[in-house]
What does this fold into?
Amino acid sequence: MRRKLVVVGNGMAGMRTVEEVLRIAPDLYDITIFGAEPYGNYNRILLSPLLAGELRIDDILLHDEEWYRAKGITFYKGKPVAAIDRRRREVVAADGTVARYDRLLLATGSLPYMLPIPGADLPGVIGFRDVADVNRMLASSRHHEYAVVIGGGLLGLEAANGLRKRGMKVTLVHLMPTLMEQQLDGDAGRLLRGSLELRGLDFIMPAETVEILGNDRVSDVRLKDGREIPADLVVMTVGIRPNVALARAAGLHCRRGIVVDSTMLTYDPAIYAVGECAESHGRTYGLVAPLYEQAKVCANHLVGWGCARYPGSLAAAKLKVTGIELFSAGNVSGGAGAESIVLHDRSSGVYKKLFLRNNRIDGAVLYGDTADGPWYVRLMRERTDISSIRHAVMFGQAQIEERGSRAAA
Amino acid sequence: MQRQIATTCPYCGVGCGIRVQRSFDGTVEVAGDPAHPANRGRLCSKGTALAETLGLAGRLLHPLWRGERVTWDRALDLAADGIARTIAEHGPDSVAFYVSGQLLTEDYYVANKLCKGFLGTGNIDTNSRLCMASSVAGHRRAFGADTVPTSYDDLDDAELVVLVGSNAAWCHPVLFDRILRARTARPDRRLVVIDPRRTRSSDAADLHLALRSGSDAVLFAALLAYLADAGCTDEAFLSQHTSGAAEALAAARTAAPSVESVAERCGLATEEVRRFFDWFARSERVVTLYSQGINQSTSGTDKVNAIINCHLLTGRIGKPGAGPLSLTGQPNAMGGREVGGLANQLAAHLEIDNPAHRDLARRFWRAPAVAEHAGLKAVEMFDAVAEGRIRALWIMSTNPVVSMPEADRVRAALERCPLVIVSDCMRDTDTARLAHLLLPALAWGEKDGTVTNSERRISRQRAFLEPPGEARADWQIVAAVAQRLGFADAFAFRSAADVFREHALLSAFENGGSRDFDIGALAALDDARYDALQPVQWPAPPERPEGTKRLFGDGRFFTPDGRARFVAVTPRPPQHRLSAAFPVLLNTGRLRDHWHTMTRSGRSPSLAAHEPEPFVAVNPADTEIADGALARLVSPHGEAVLRLRHSAEQPRGTAFAPMHWGTTHASRARIGAVVNAAVDPISGQPELKHTPVRLEPLRTRWQAFLASRRRLGATALDGLDWAMAVTPYGFRYELAGSERPEAWEDWARRLFPAARRATRWLAYEDAGTGSYRYARLIDDQLDACLFIARERPAVARDWLIGLFAEPSVRALHLRLLAGEPAPGSPEGGKLVCVCCSVGERAIEAAIRDHSLDSVEAITQATSAGSNCGSCRPELALLLRRAREPATSA
It folds into this structure.
């Protein structure tokens, strides 16, 4: 008799784990998946191109329903889970559906953080998390003119760009003086702002939003300096928070996220967690590469191999705004003991900066030409001492690695 | 429509014939003249690149008085008035002329005539004093006249060629190539090179005697004794045609009691000394070639005679394939000697201290004031300027502020001289900067006249370009001043041919075989025949118009008794000894692709590529300073800042620095400022090859490489150490500074020449390693680039310079700031073959990839060495390095 694996969350992290499990041990588990959204697993990263009208929903689907059937997976779509009964090893959906598990995988993802300000609950104020949000934005763009995006991070910029492309007049309000300050240094942030302004976006920054005005629907956004900006749609992209309500209610140890060890196991030996909801080594992740790394480790343990460890990930981000090549990885805030190498041609919009610590790459910002991003991530991850290639490392892998092969020849 | 002109190369004393093809569109092509006996069609890298040096950039085209343009009339008045007033107030010896082996014989003749016949002073000396004077003095002591007995043809006939104190492979490449080819045809022939340094010449030798600097006279004294003991004495020749043999031999035996003791004093192995002596003894036909390593010494004259003694003892002179042959450094050093351009000569090999000769000149010239005594030799002359005894100095076609020893003193002397007149073809030289009056002279290709090479061969230098601006021939300028001084009749020359005829007449005047220099056969040339004059070796007396290949075959010399004189030589060490404060011996000399102070060769991108930066080479064991660092080279006389080069070719305790750089091409590389001015008591030639120095590290905060399409602005380099060279697309600089600017990027933008068009700016900054790199693009073309680092930036300079040729660097873009080509590319490395543009890396790759085993195979595979062949010695070196990788360091 096959063991039962129940997965809560039909997103990218959970599904990548399922794929890994099936690849290694296709017959080990009977698998049941609960998804809150009424779709198969889709590529959440591509919501921005979906919003921008560059892709359709079919284009971003990773697994259609036929796939679940073919794999013999019981797939409950549009069926949020209400509770976990850890003693009985059961999950209970909102509609009363019950599923027993031998192993439970929590992949509940995250929720957009909504500013706790007056008017935040008005119709027309949304986050940017799922296909439903995209649909709401698309609906607004058909009937309304003004959009305000609050938060100049990766997601906010992609939302603003998409809405602009959908014909809305978009103002982006950001608390900090530069865009994407988590991922970019000031120079790159300024270049990015310039090129988005050329695309028709307006920026107000640094600026703090204190209230959202409107009667039956949002009408304006008020800033701390008193300015009011017309808004038929407000998209809040000021951050995400791990979706831990279900786990916490079930008594699992949570801090910011569901706390897991380096095998992705929660404090309950039958329950694993992966993705944006999981907190590993004190950190939570919101980007796709770490989630895939977690999925791989988690699957390794689910199938009983028990030999993989998740040491934490290096955060790397790529902006998905067509025509803007932007890559960021690692620590780009500098600080004591940090050095940097910078290479740029501002007139043609290329700017690259590497942050170094003890002759190891600690962070990278690539603007305009991101081809070497993965290589820098590899050097970062492997903690490679770059002393001997420091003079050339900024010019990319091709400038160095062929030399190595030549020397060996 | 093309026309072809036969002329002569303006560089070294080999005197190669050149065919110049000038196309309708003005382009000029230069090739060796197959009909010229000196080179038979061959040219070296410098001659080959002559066309690159012809542009008018930097030329002096109008007379300037204190920096302001004046008319010729005014300029000539200023010169004549200045000279007249100085003589009136301070006497004839308060005026001096410092002239040059660059002048044509006609120019030289007129200047010498004015001084020694009309101004009444012997104070005309030439820069040949720095390279030839000891040979002249040695010749006169031995032969009674300044006679070169031999011909280049003797090199073809010689069984043994001895090359002493000469890197002919670089300094006289065409002649050196001729020696090597003669040996290839007859492998039993031998080449011995005697030189403290390992050079490309010594690489080709069958035996290299790397003797201790300054010990040549000991070696040749020992050779004399050895030859006598070995029964090589030509007793008949000795008794009938020479005098003084016994005294000379006795002195030699005292100086060199045994081969062993001599070997020790020379720092050589006894066996190698013996081998050389044995080869010399057994070779009836032996030519001893010598150059600055012998001449530039406080005992240079004695060294010359020590060599000549050996030829006299064995009677190996005046015969095919035998004799001493001094290699001259300049195209017309010999012509200068012929007209009397040295202060201790009169004219046409007449002696200034001989009353009969003075009388002869007075009558021939109808001269009012023939100089009564020898004038001041170069070093004394500038001392006299410094002391205010000379108050008007006219410098023609030479750059003493760079080339003289203790050159800072020379500069200071010129700075306080009341009247400095400089005639030159270049506007900006270290010397021209100190002139009150600048007179624009014709350059090579524009001027017309004759030159004489090392084998006494008179050749025409012909004009193939129109005179630019208001430039005039030097003889015209001097004659015009002479006319204003009241000597109109004596200086009424209408043409160079006019001058030459008078010069030839004087040589034959009351001669009748009493003086060696007689070209009476050429005195009656009409203008057309002068113009068509074919190369001819003097003497060419009226009865022998075909000239003379070899002298002294009849055993008759030009001494009063007709006998050649042995000179008893007691070897003397160089003047200055090493000390704790100055423990390293500095030797100076030429490079392959530069010449003199670079006023011409410095204009050629091809030539600049060989050694774009001034350096000092030192044995690695003698210095703590790293290879490639900047060093201060300090002597009691001055200092220079040079790139330090570790070289195992440099003997322990010695350093070598090239002589070429003035402040027009580098900030502080003027080696003349470091070199001592001690002179030979007879010849007055300074000891340029022996100065005690020390090396100190130069403390710099940063160094940089910069390449730009345009030259940097005049003040951009203030406060920096720098060296500049031309490239095919502009200029390249090595920079160093002791202070860091506040913001490198702003500094770089200010440093680059102003751009009149929209630019793109590329930047790379790594503050942690002090590495800053910038480039400026105009329309996707590289306009300027700068690489800054804490030490000399390790970038592929030739590759970067090559990028300036690309119509677009878009594909490379920011990667050009990497400063080196994509890995695996064969580009780059030091340029070896200048003619065919082949770099070291490509040659090394070809040797490796095709297992090449000879220089010919390299030439076939890469085309390097297929044109002038000057780089073949270097190809041989690369080949050897490839074979012995362990010893390549």
